[in-house]
Specification:
Order of helices and strands: EHEEHEHHEHEEEEEHEHEHHEHEHHHHE
CATH topology of the largest domain: Rossmann fold
Number of strands: 15
Number of domains: 2
Largest sheet: 9 strands, mixed
CATH architecture of the largest domain: 3-Layer(aba) Sandwich
CATH class of the largest domain: Alpha Beta
Strand content: 15-25%
Shape: elongated
Amino acid sequence: MKEVLLLKCGEIVLKGLNRKTFEDRLLKNLSRRMKHVADCNITMRQSVVYVEVPEDADADAVMDCARHVFGFATISRAAVCPEKTLESVIDTAQSYLAPRFAQAKTFKVETKRGDKKFPMTSTEISQHVGCELADRFPEVRPYMHGPDLTVHVEIREKYAFVHAGPEPGAGGMPIGSNGRAALLLSGGIDSPVAGWMMAKRGLELVGVHFFSYPYTSERAKEKVLELGRKLTVWCGRMSVMVVPFTKIQEEIREKCHEELFTLIMRRFMMRIAERVAVEYGCGALITGESLGQVASQTMPAMGVTGAVCELPIFRPCIGMDKEEIVTIARKIDTFETSILPYEDCCTVFTPKHPNTKPKMPKILEAESHLDVDALVDEAVAGVEIIHLP
């Protein structure tokens, strides 16, 4: 039986004159992702994207791929009726939804009649199909208020479809529709979640990771790359810029007061990330900071670290507690990788008593002992670019 996915567009339907730009981006993203799964024919009509599943393809894999594409509000896996007639609809519903009927005790029928030339109204179609299915499945009784199974019938311009109801899509905006941003990817729980949240708002991601070999191992670097690969399931292609950070940390440890180490280190990270972001066409930085979570994420500390940047800094986790962040991390399958016990540069040379209420003059005085520009230039020049599939 021929199957098709019906993907209903989300908030892009609210766009005005530029709506086609978002739709084109959405179709491009979907086509690029689907080509790794199956050779599907993809079309769009009236804010609904139709993905025709080849008979030799794995329909479950196609469905799973569609679940991870931002921009769709709902996804329905439907059977295509051989003919756009009431009899064909009833026969298709009987054969396609037989396993669902076997598990249900009650059902009802809901119809959407997109083709207004069809000779019956939506209510009439629902009543007629419901009566026939009740006769063919006598052990399942019709029930209009919260039934176990809702049979959905959609009468469209070219075809009629039958399915058991939609499931939520990934939501959000198409990747790339709102530009590109650099994600500071540390290897912890928060930064992948922050990247996922901003990708959902239509941002293409470029990862920036600070690598402090030999204080951090190659396994720590591979952990970050694995987090990037898990993000590509949602975000598509992604590059990670690995920045050599050892010399900067050693210089800070040697020439600056211990309580300021983390703050000055993060200011360097912001400077370098901004340089990389501008070079690769990014319009913003993304961090996984959550207000008050650690000493460097107090409001004064974030004010000090963000002061070195001209680009906007997006902090989507800022008002979330750890439990909320972990819930999303589990959803996007990054949690188990994030908690692998490998050091990252943020845990190297951690001060015993970090300053949680820094003052800018004191920070600037401490940085005056460092050749900031030379250190930043050297780090940027040593960036290793890794392209993830």
